[in-house]
Recover the amino acids of this structure.
């Protein structure tokens, strides 16, 4: 088996998930200059809700085709997360839009804690298994590496979603309003853009992406956990910053890149350090790369370099 | 009169925008030197390039024999070149007095240890700094606002506070970017008197100003920028009648 | 500008009386707490004091200099592990506190500068994420530096750490002092109280100094600060180093107090908690930060009593209070921020304004 090719595939799959979650961060940041710290938890809720629905449906109708059961779970999780994202903005951010900059950061942290603990109370502290038998079990060989049906589905779905998002932002009325609001909220308002509606829409879109990413990640790894949103969110945010926060293409690039770097890093770190550091250092790659890139290019890979006006 | 500031071929481009191209001139000690030109001519960019907030692309900048080219802003201030901002940049949540005391940073020395131990030197320095700041507040005419937060001052008073903060560094050269903008006629007169008295005490001033009457009345000499290039230099009278200048201003304004 | 000078004789004596009462209250506090709430609460107020030190340290970086640091707990970890490694069976060392504490603080300060240097050009949220990454890197290293050479003992952490011993007087066991029998948490309480007093003193002095003004100027407008003659690079590094020093000191004290450290104690949530203390209390304002630290430490502990509350209300415990308390804490955090966005005790400047209006 070719380790490089295998880790590349694993990295792209992982990176797809990071990218989808990163898009949620970047969309919100682009418009509000706010780190939606609770976004990782929205992803986790997406996983958990989908798993709950899948488990219940499998219980009452085990004869349904597996893929139908899983898609039902996804289709319940998406609107549920949309509603969640919308509510988070209304409750925790909108009242603080003109407050000191760190105030919404703290409410975001509060909401994260609440969501984690609600999930823990509902679903318990243990890992919840994804009934992977419901999913296609195919495995294919390419370039000396193997790729599962689930991984192919993740990659294809991610590409499709990104294409859809690009069209939404660049070609539709809503997209135009979003871009206008991101550039100059006050002007957009004067030009008749309903800024509040645009902001709500942004949260809703980001949350839908998070729900999909949440289901993907639990399908890929076969499990979910009430605490999973934390590290996932952290890395996805790192990915968004890496690509240049506020920049859609940057979030996609940053996510994929981070996933690949992490997977390759984990695969090779032992060789690179003569066995001194093992693969459990995987998590530091995300942060090392992030620090390195930002030190060299403070606005991220695709972020526009701007001289601060004096 | 001797030369204080000499700049040669200063250029600053932002991507395709040629904000400054090959600008050269000399400011003499003890004069009020005007920098005028239409909006977007590059006047503010010139100040930024001179005071180290922007890195000039090329050029030479020389203050009383020291090169300031590509030096850090704090080094330039320490060398004796202070400035104010067109879009007032005060420390909003600090009091007027504290703003001015920050301006004295380079002329004071107390570090962490001195502050912790309240050494005799430190206490004296703090007392002197407070007194100096109060004196400057009085001087610019906002002496009664010692403990008012900068953000709660009126617009004109904020402009004056910026001047006081700049003066606190005991500069040789003070560059004012549209100090009269938004001031009423009374405030403008007070400002003019302040500038004149500062000059009479030996300070050299550079002044960006749109109020033609004010600028023509007070400046000893001036340069005119247009599209980032110097199009004229000289006394108010020569500049006023320069055809290039009249063209740049579409005839009307400068003659007023 | 001594405030006392401006007061009349009568007012002056009132200030002294208040101070004396406050001091007396603080001295008696552990006894009152033990008598009313139980022994475990003495430990909780000890922890609250530690968090006050941490929060005041972070306040220098975030509150004064305006640098959003989400990896502050890394310095706490450095100080704690410094103590743990130099005074435990891990390496068979037992160095005295007057070596370990300064060493821990110095190493933490070095880390502060190390972190600060590459991040100087970064602004706001970018700085936040880089510092956060730095904190995680430190934690991951601590978590994994048990192989191939065992330094930190990995996820198990280091146990049997020597307690603070001041020239032979151990704070780790019950001692008789002036005829009173004081347990270890009581002894640590007085030590920590002293340390907090010291930290407050340092913060007050710095706040009203040339350096403190330079920090606030950078927070308010970095470019204007540079134009006003401040070497922003050095002054920002100084803020990182000072904050880290306090973090390192608190870490050492924590290790000696707890007798046990593990990477778990130094995760990102901890950094976030410390940040929430200062934002909640009132950034840049010392009394506010202290209040915030106390609330964020005490509220989750107090919420352990929701079991009793459930029993009273419903006759039985439906939800384990240990599971419920963080949920309630999260809700409390959101509510407090919504009602007081500038913090519970916002900065002093406002008071000055009032004084002026009255004059
Ligand atoms: N930081 C910057 N980035 C890009 N363009 C800039 C920047 N600062 C100034 N400019 C451009 O340089 C030109 C000159 O601007 P400025 O110096 O502010 O003009 P003035 O002060 O004479 O009105 C303008 O076209 C302006 O848009
Ligand atoms: Mg200008």
């Amino acid at each position: 088996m070719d380790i490089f090719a295998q880790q590349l595939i694993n990295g792209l799959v992982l990176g797809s998930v990071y990218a989808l979650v990163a898009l949620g961060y970047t969309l919100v940041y682009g418009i509000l200059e706010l780190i939606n710290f609770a976004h990782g938890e929205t992803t986790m809720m997406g996983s958990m809700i989908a798993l709950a629905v899948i488990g219940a449906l499998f219980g009452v109708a085990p004869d349904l085709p597996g893929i139908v059961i899983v898609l039902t779970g996804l289709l319940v999780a998406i609107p549920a997360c949309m509603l969640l994202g919308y509510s988070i903005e209304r409750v925790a951010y909108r009242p603080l839009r003109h407050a000191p900059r760190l105030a919404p950061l703290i409410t975001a942290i509060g909401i994260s804690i609440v969501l984690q603990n609600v999930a823990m109370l509902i679903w318990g502290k243990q890992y919840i298994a994804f009934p992977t038998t419901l999913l296609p079990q195919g495995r294919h060989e390419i370039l000396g590496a193997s790729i599962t049906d689930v991984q192919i589905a993740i990659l294809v779905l991610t590409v499709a979603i990104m294409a859809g998002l690009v069209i939404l932002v660049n070609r539709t009325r809503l997209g135009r309003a979003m871009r206008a609001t991101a550039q100059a909220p006050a002007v957009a308002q004067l030009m008749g853009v309903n800024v509040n509606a645009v902001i709500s829409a942004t949260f809703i879109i980001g949350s839908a992406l998070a729900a999909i990413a949440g289901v993907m990640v639990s399908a890929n790894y076969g499990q979910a956990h009430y605490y999973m949103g934390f590290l996932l969110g952290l890395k996805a945010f790192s990915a968004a910053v890496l690509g240049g926060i506020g920049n859609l293409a940057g979030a996609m690039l940053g996510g994929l890149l981070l996933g690949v770097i992490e997977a390759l890093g984990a695969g090779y770190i032992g060789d690179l350090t003569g066995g001194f550091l093992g693969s459990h250092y995987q998590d530091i790659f995300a942060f090392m790369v992030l620090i390195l890139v930002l030190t060299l290019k403070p606005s991220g890979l695709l972020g526009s370099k701007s001289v601060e006006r004096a | 009169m001797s030369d204080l500031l000499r700049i040669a071929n200063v250029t600053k481009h932002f991507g395709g925008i040629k904000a400054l191209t090959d600008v050269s001139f000399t400011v003499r000690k003890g004069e009020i030197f005007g920098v005028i030109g239409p909006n977007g001519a590059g006047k503010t960019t010139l100040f930024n390039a001179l005071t180290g907030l922007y890195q000039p692309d090329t050029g030479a900048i020389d203050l009383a024999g020291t090169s300031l080219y590509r030096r850090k802003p704090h080094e330039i201030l320490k060398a004796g070149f202070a400035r104010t901002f067109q879009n007032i940049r005060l420390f909003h949540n600090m009091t007027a007095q504290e703003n001015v005391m920050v301006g004295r940073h380079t002329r004071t020395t107390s570090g962490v240890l001195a502050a912790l131990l309240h050494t005799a030197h430190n206490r004296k320095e703090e007392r002197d700094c407070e007194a100096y700041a109060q004196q400057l507040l009085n001087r610019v005419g906002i002496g009664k606002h010692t403990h008012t937060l900068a953000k709660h001052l009126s617009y004109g008073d904020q402009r004056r506070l910026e001047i006081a903060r700049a003066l606190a560094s005991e500069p040789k050269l003070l560059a004012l970017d549209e100090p009269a903008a938004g001031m009423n006629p009374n405030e403008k007169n007070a400002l003019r008197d302040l500038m004149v008295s500062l000059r009479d005490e030996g300070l050299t001033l550079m002044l960006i100003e749109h109020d033609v009457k004010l600028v023509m009345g007070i400046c000893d000499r001036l340069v005119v920028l247009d599209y980032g290039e110097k199009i004229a230099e000289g006394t108010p009278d020569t500049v006023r009648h320069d055809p290039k200048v009249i063209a740049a201003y579409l005839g009307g304004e400068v003659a007023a | 500008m001594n405030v006392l000078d401006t007061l009349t004789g009568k007012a002056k004596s009132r200030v002294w009386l208040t101070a004396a009462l406050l001091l007396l209250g603080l001295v008696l506090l552990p006894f009152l707490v033990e008598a009313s709430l139980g022994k475990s609460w003495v430990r909780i107020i000890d922890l609250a004091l530690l968090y006050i030190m941490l929060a005041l340290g972070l306040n220098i970086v975030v509150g004064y200099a305006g640098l959003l640091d989400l990896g502050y707990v890394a310095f706490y970890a450095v100080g704690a592990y410094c103590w743990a490694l130099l005074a435990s069976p891990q390496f068979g060392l037992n160095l005295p506190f007057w070596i370990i504490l300064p060493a821990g603080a110095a190493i933490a300060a070095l880390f502060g500068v190390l972190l600060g240097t590459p991040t100087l050009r970064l602004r706001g949220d970018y700085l936040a994420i880089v510092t956060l990454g730095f904190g995680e890197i430190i934690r991951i290293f601590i978590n994994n530096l048990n192989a191939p050479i065992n330094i930190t003992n990995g996820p198990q952490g280091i146990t049997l750490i020597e307690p603070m011993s001041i020239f032979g007087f151990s704070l780790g066991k019950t001692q008789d002092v002036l005829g009173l029998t004081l347990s270890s948490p009581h002894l640590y309480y007085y030590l920590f109280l002293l340390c907090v007093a010291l930290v407050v003193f340092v913060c007050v002095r710095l706040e009203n100094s040339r350096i403190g003004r330079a920090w606030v100027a950078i927070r308010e407008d970095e470019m204007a600060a540079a134009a006003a003659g401040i070497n922003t690079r050095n002054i920002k590094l100084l803020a990182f180093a000072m904050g880290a020093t306090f973090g390192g000191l608190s870490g050492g004290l924590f290790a000696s107090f707890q007798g046990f450290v593990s990477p778990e104690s130094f995760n990102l949530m901890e950094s976030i908690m410390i940040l929430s203390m200062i934002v909640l209390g009132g950034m840049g304002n010392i009394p506010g930060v202290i209040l915030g630290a106390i609330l964020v430490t005490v509220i989750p502990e107090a919420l352990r009593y929701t079991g009793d509350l459930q029993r009273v209300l419903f006759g039985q415990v439906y939800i384990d209070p240990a599971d419920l308390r963080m949920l309630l804490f999260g809700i409390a955090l959101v509510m407090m921020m919504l009602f007081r966005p500038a913090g519970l005790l916002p900065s002093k400047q406002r008071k000055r304004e009032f004084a002026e209006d009255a004059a």
About this structure: Residues B 43-44, 86 surround magnesium ion (ligand 2) (CB under 6 Å). Chain B has two domains: 3-80+171-250, 92-155. Residues 92-155 of chain B form one domain. The CA atoms of residues 30 and 203 of chain B lie 6 Å apart.
